[in-house]
Specification:
- The complex is a heterodimer of chains A (292) and B (245).
- Chain A is α/β, with parallel strands linked by helices and 292 residues long.
- Chain A has helices at 27-34, 56-62, 78-88, 97-104, 120-132, 150-164, 200-205, 219-228, 253-262, 277-291, and strands spanning 16-20, 46-47, 50-51, 63-66, 138-142, 169-174, 185-190, 193-198, 211-215, 232-238, 241-246, 269-273.
- The model of chain A has no long low-confidence stretch (mean pLDDT 94).
- Chain B has a single domain (2-91, 157-241), classed as 3-Layer(aba) Sandwich (Rossmann fold), CATH 3.40.50.300.
- In chain B, strand 4 (61-66) and strand 5 (69-70) form a beta hairpin.
- Classes of the chains: A alpha/beta (292), B alpha/beta (245).
- At the A-B interface, helix 6, helix 8, strand 10 and helix 10 of A face helix 6 and helix 9 of B.
Chain lengths: 292, 245
Amino acid sequence: MQALRDITFEVKPGELFGLIGPDGAGKTTLFRILTTLLFADEGTASVAGMDVVGDYRDIRKAVGYMPGRFSLYQDLSVEENLDFFATIFGTTVEENYDLIKDIYIQIEPFKKRRVVALSGGMKQKLALSCALIHKPKVLFLDEPTTGVDPVSRREFWDMLKRLNSTGITVLVSTPYMDEAELCNRIALIQEGELLVVDSPENIVANHTDSLYKVAAKNTYMLIKDLKDFKGNKSVYAFGEFIHYTHSNSDFSEERLGEYLEAKGHEDIKIVKARAGIEDVFMALSEKKGTEV
Amino acid sequence: MKETEKVIVVNDLTKKFGSFTAVDQISFETRKGEIFGFLGANGAGKTTAMKMLIGISKPTSGEAIVNGFDVKTQPEKVKKTIGYMSQKFSMYDDLNIMENITFFGGIYGLSRKEIKERGEAVIEKLGLREVAKKQVGSLPLGWKQKLAFSVALLHEPKVVFLDEPTGGVDPITRRQFWEMIYAEADKGTTIFVTTHYMDEAEYCNRVSIMVEGKIEALDSPKNLKKQFDASSMDEVFQKLARNVE
């Protein structure tokens, strides 16, 4: 099993960089290599100017890492956990309190509570505080929002943006494509390979497939019939619409409309639309699938 | 008449843990063949409510009838007649595909012949012939979830409960999964589904949104968007669920 293959990318100082892909794509393996917890078989990597193999000790002091699964001590209280991580890194909570203040203040009322009794949202805030307490240059967050509801996700990203604005370089991984646009630059990863690395705006702008949003009363039948439409390239459900792309330039909205009408569809809507990151991700991974 | 057959009927269903009310007098009905989205923020009470509906947690008060059986007094009958899968647990990783099918088929009381026939049909339909002898744990998550959904339907239940079935699944497989849901609903199976993907909420016939133990909204996505003056279900959700922890 090859978890990662020929990964090449750079993150600039102060960037908020997103590594975006589904479960099993290799995100965690990549973060472990970059945080010196795992050796790569081939290739090199440096973080904050230091080599991940030769300078592993110094890298560990310079980075903060929040793993996907909670890394906190369940049987210690909130403040004990924070103290513990500060001490390990040879600092104190007071020394870097400014950095975590915004986040920590929300859980401070519960500082005597043991971690095991905290809600998911509170644990996440504590884990982030612990990853920040030694004032790292680079912060790695492995799927901080997986399984988190949309409201809490948005709040977490607001927090991340504020942190990033203090100058810390942030690498964050996520399976949620809609979080891409919140990053300065992103890498899309699938099955151990990077599909593309660029700003979300450029990725979308470089995508040339014409995309149509299609809707009708019966969505299930609409998907089926679009897949039978001659020349279809991709048919994907997207919320209340189906995103449709055609395999050649020989396409007219009128012709598709007539076809769907003949199939008995009602309330047909066909609108030309702009692709989003998720459209591009699917197009690129389909392309990869046909190349192999 | 078939169209209006009620598969789940819930009246004032409540669950308290000591002084904390996790589920607070919720009421709703789902129809045959309906895709019913069950949304809410983390900690809003979704899981607790679902546990009552599938017969593994006793309501403090109120009632829930699933497939004509009372979850309070006939939980074993409820369990036998429903399908269930979740993101966290769906199948045994160290059994192979056919072993999992045999195990779950047996649990649901299918005959050897039925298990073999339906199992083969599932493997065929999902194109898993080549990996049928592989341990389920070695399959990509998306395949696993499609397989788990088919296994949950093996005993042809009238209603299937799906707890975040697509979490972390890649975007293409996530859509294939929903096409399977559509096809199953089209056959008349009721689908009860939770998700954190708001685009998936749009695929449901009706959606309920829980906030702090109560159902604060319940309607079709179209009507909910109208009601909350929102352009997407994400916006509806943000408007309803923001600022409560």
